[in-house]
Write a sequence for this structure.
């Protein structure tokens, strides 16, 4: 029998006009401390994003979202936050902020397969 893993996930959102509080789900972060797992997936639907904000620099947005992946991976190019332990990186990524890129509050779950859960959540909540 496969071991069940307690995990937390958060949805990555783009909020083009923070004052309007409208957002577009663009990614997922999944974290499991016990399994040593922290991964992010994202995809930007350019046509949907243009409906929210015609003048958003999508290259810059992708670059900023790519930093989420670097932090998850502990990549040295991810800056000092990427060098923190897994739990601290997840908490930093999911901290409440009023910027164009935000995350939902973390939600818990149990799973036998963290990668499969990451992909399922991504398909359900982003695509």
């Amino acid at each position: 029998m496969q071991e069940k893993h307690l995990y937390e996930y958060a949805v990555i959102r783009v909020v083009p006009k923070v004052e309007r509080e409208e957002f577009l789900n663009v990614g997922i972060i999944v974290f499991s401390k016990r399994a040593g797992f922290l991964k992010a997936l994202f995809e930007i639907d350019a046509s949907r994003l243009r409906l929210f904000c015609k003048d958003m620099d999508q290259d810059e947005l992708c670059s900023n979202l790519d930093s989420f992946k670097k932090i998850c991976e502990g990549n040295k190019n991810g800056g000092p936050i990427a060098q923190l332990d897994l739990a601290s990186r997840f908490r930093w990524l999911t901290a409440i902020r009023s910027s164009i890129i935000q995350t939902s509050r973390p939600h818990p779950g149990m799973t036998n397969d963290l990668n499969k859960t990451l992909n399922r959540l991504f398909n359900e909540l982003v695509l």
Notes: The chain has one domain: 5-125. The CA atoms of residues 71 and 82 lie 4 Å apart. The chain has a mean pLDDT of 94. Residues 5-125 form one domain.
